[in-house]
């Protein structure tokens, strides 16, 4: 049986973590790409040498040329610059858009059949631009954000209620920015919606609101602590969950930044929504009912994403 090939485009902290996780899970053979000479080669060699200790069989290779990603089944894109304290994700738009143009061309040339997961910020606009620059089918290009944001929400809820994270589910809709929309009605502990848990006295509505706000600020909280860059363990774990669902045709329902084709009354844009991820890529976008307040928040988030897309078009007219 042919082994899967996973190309990691960008070999910084997230790229290295992705390579390690993909190796531990034996998802396939891994190519780390970066323009910085030596970095992908060094990380590939280092992780390979953990194989005998951890007991995994994966071949890891570092490359500085896009030809090295040829024939990849999955490409996970982290190339670009992370934010530092005091910056918003949106401040990265100009610099990372140029990087997406090069990455899109590289993927189009060498890995046109890949499932592409973008992590670069500002996420929703970057994945939209990457799809256009690469010309790959929309259902094969997605953004990683909802899994991360929901993971943060689940962590905070499990901590608050003193229960296992395994028994907490959460949905976060919308863009991966300050306007993201954590949904208490669709988030549960042992199947009980948070809105009911508040009625049952598990926590007050005000406390739940604080947890929701902490989720929205989750990326910035880590940037503030690290000071030199942004989160990498949880973003990498989130992207690997998406890659695994694709490679194993698991059909997981995961919140992803996906191209909408009329769902939620929207098209021609990427925004966070629940999706079924299987061998076909995004096989289905799940439309959930939103009440008036949730709709209003989602619209605000969508408008923020549209503003970023317009800014991208101002810089790169080919995106129009
Ligand atoms: C995150 O949410 O951790 C990432 O989007 C990185 C960032 O800048 O917050």
Kindly describe this structure:
By secondary structure, the protein is an alpha/beta fold. The protein is built from 11 helices and 14 strands. It has helices at about 15-25, 40-50, 50-55, 95-110, 125-135, 145-160, 195-200, 205-215, 220-225, 235-245, 290-315; strands at about 5-10, 30-35, 60-65, 75, 115-120, 140-145, 170, 170-175, 180, 190, 190-195, 250-260, 265-280, 280-285. The radius of gyration is 19 Å and the shape is globular. The termini are far apart. Bound molecules: (2S)-2-hydroxybutanedioic acid.
Biggest sheet strand line-up:
3-2-1-4-5-6
Strand content range:
15-25%
Q: So how many helices?
A: 11
Bound molecules: (2S)-2-hydroxybutanedioic acid
Structural class given helices, strands, pairing?
alpha/beta
Main sheet specs: 6 strands, parallel
Using only C-alpha atoms, the radius of gyration works out to 19 Å
H/E element string? EHEHHEEHEHEHEEEEEHHHHEEEH
Distance between the termini: 42 Å
Helix fraction, binned, reads 40-55%
Q: For the residues shown, what is the average pLDDT?
A: 97
Return residue spans where pLDDT drops below 50 for at least 5 consecutive residues: none
What is the global morphology? globular
Strand runs, count: 14
EC number: 1.1.1.37
Binding site for substrate: 83, 89, 121, 152
Domain Lactate/malate dehydrogenase N-terminal: 5-143
Enzyme class: oxidoreductase
